[in-house]
What does this fold into?
Amino acid sequence: MSRQKNLQTIGGLVNAKALEDLQQSFDTMSILDAVDTIDEIRYRICEPERLRSDLLRLHGLAHALINGDYTNASEKDGPIWELAEELESDIGEWADNLRAISVMLDKLVLLVPDEEYDDEDEEVEFG
It folds into this structure.
């Protein structure tokens, strides 16, 4: 690989050293894994009667217990702590998965070109 600070590539101008490092260590499948993770989260969040419904049920139970208003609460909703625990577990898992995606993306952000570059020294690398 060239000793230039930056390279013009199919992905735009990138930091040559960071690209070399990523070519040795970055698994591009991690991006497809991120897509799968987002699909799983999206299903749980967007599917009718899922997260939104669970949060509304939790609100009804909390409102009844804390404010004494039983208008929107039902015994069929089960124990409040059980519902809260399920939601906390799901959201905690998503947060962990999203943090992992963020860490993976941070590696690609390192490709930002070095600010000091000479246009005449740029090289096009497609391959």
Summary: The mean pLDDT is 88. The helical segments are 16-25, 29-46, 51-67, 80-109.
